[in-house]
Design goal:
The protein is of the alpha+beta class. The protein contains ten helices and 24 strands. Strand 18 and strand 19 form a beta hairpin. Helix 1 runs parallel beside helix 2 and helix 3 packs parallel to helix 5.
Length: 463
């Protein structure tokens, strides 16, 4: 992307006022998005994001600035700006840059630009038609298609110089069912670290039908009861609760500041022994995977919780310095406009020995939350509030009928201890995660799990 002599000059300029460490991040990304609404393509945007960011450390204080002027003069101007933000007493010289190459296992079989735009338009229309044809209750279908190439280069004063190429593909579908001034939504958003071959592997008719079926089923369902009782949470996107209520509290972004309920719990039991949780950036072609993180560290599989015991945090370079532990390859950022922080990749609860039928049979009265929806979390406490996108009542050990409007209310550290059964049907689901370093691709996931007791918010009293 840029000559070695320029990179060295930029890193040295950033160190010139006594900083301990300097880093240069360059990015060249090309993305295309397309939106279908009201049976029409209403938006089609392509763009190129090209720029660089320079970061320095003065002890545990980080300073970051970015620019889209990647000329030698532009980069040196940014480097000088961050160097003057503080004064240190070190006179660090950069170590001779050594190119480090990592062979990415995430191969692109069909480049996006090799596929005619008419094929992509036909793909989204097929989803729309399948959803609308499922039921007359479907009043609207919103489809967002996305493809992106991201090329990055990272160099730092410790002598690291490396590059990575990432290719993202995703389609997000939201089908809306409407009747008697009532509305319900069914959504799916599959994605992968792949080229256009990903879309060839997606059945558009099945995707449209699936979202429509969920929306209609919930539209015609009774309201869910409220109370405190057992809940079985379905696989795949059910993992959003762990991601939001527990995962963020295991990032050094919060741990290093003492803002996490788990900050002092390393090597102690924080969950039921049936719970093992993993953050894995190495999974082949998964949406949240990378070959290296955005600090140039190789990605890895990190066991966070092993049979209930807290084993590790998700650690970036600065966070690791603050808590005295090495990086887990978890430093991530949306683009060159953000400094990296510790972030999740593909985060999930691992498989267990139980079956869904055993779980359902063990419940006299409860809720089966087959598909989770959105929600909110208080990061400092882990208190959460999540909507159930597709729910069913459990009565006398059997699934009885669909119910809508259920909300799960609880606390992340408490729910970990109340998980009593874990199935073997592990699946992951794709999403975008927002935090201090922007919005990044991540996967959430889990097998179906049983939570012995949780507060369910609903609009119907238990008889």
């Amino acid at each position: 992307m840029i000559r070695k002599s320029i990179i060295e000059s930029v890193l040295q300029k950033a160190l010139s006022n006594g900083a301990d460490f300097s880093e240069l991040f360059l990015e060249d990304s090309v993305s295309s998005t397309m939106q279908l609404l009201d049976r029409k393509i209403v938006k089609s945007i392509s763009g190129n994001d090209y720029g660089a960011g320079v970061r320095v450390f003065y002890g545990h204080r980080a300073i970051y600035a970015f620019t889209n002027d990647v000329s030698e003069k532009g980069l040196l101007t940014v480097a000088e700006a961050v160097s003057k933000a503080e004064t240190g007493d070190k006179r660090t010289e950069i170590i001779d840059l050594t190119q480090k190459t990592y062979d990415s296992p995430h191969k692109v079989l069909i480049p996006f630009n090799s596929v005619p735009i008419q094929d992509k338009i036909a793909f989204v229309h097929s989803i729309d038609n399948a959803s609308r044809n499922f039921s007359d209750y479907i009043s609207q279908v919103n489809i967002n298609y996305m493809e992106k190439y991201q090329n990055i280069m990272i160099a730092n004063s410790e002598g690291l110089s490396t590059q990575d190429q990432r290719t993202y593909a995703r389609v997000y579908v939201s089908s809306i069912a409407f009747k008697d001034n009532q509305m319900q939504t069914g959504s799916e958003g599959p994605g992968a670290l792949m080229g256009y071959e990903f879309f060839n592997n997606v059945d558009p008719e099945e995707l449209g039908r699936k979202t429509a079926e969920r929306a209609v089923k919930m539209l015609l369902a009774e309201y869910a009861p409220s109370g405190k009782f057992p809940v079985i949470i379905g696989n795949a996107f059910g993992g959003v609760i762990f991601h939001e209520a527990c995962g963020h509290s295991l990032e050094t972004t919060s741990v290093a500041k003492g803002a996490s309920v788990f900050a002092d719990k390393l090597n102690t039991r924080i969950a039921n022994p049936c719970v093992t949780a993993i953050d894995d950036g190495t999974m082949l072609n998964k949406w949240g995977s990378t070959t290296i993180d955005d600090e140039g560290s190789p990605t890895q599989r990190t066991v966070l919780i092993d049979k209930g015991m807290l084993q590790s945090f998700m650690i970036d370079k600065l966070g690791g310095m603050k808590i005295g532990l090495p990086s887990t390859g978890s430093g991530r950022r949306q683009s060159y406009k953000f400094a990296p922080t510790s972030r999740m990749r593909n985060t999930y609860i691992d498989k267990g020995p139980d079956t869904i039928q055993d779980m359902i049979s063990s419940v006299d009265f409860g809720l089966y939350a087959k598909k989770m929806g959105g929600g909110s979390v208080q990061p400092g406490t882990g208190d959460f509030n999540f909507a159930v996108g597709e729910g069913y009542l459990i009565e006398d050990g059997k699934i009885s009928k669909p119910v809508r409007g259920a909300t799960l209310i609880g606390n992340g550290k408490d729910i970990l201890k109340r998980i009593s059964m874990v199935s073997d049907d592990l699946e992951l689901a794709e999403g975008m995660c927002g935090s201090q370093s922007g919005s990044i691709p991540t996967c959430v996931g889990q097998p179906t799990i049983k939570v012995d007791e949780i507060v369910v918010g609903g609009r119907k009293k238990i008889a």
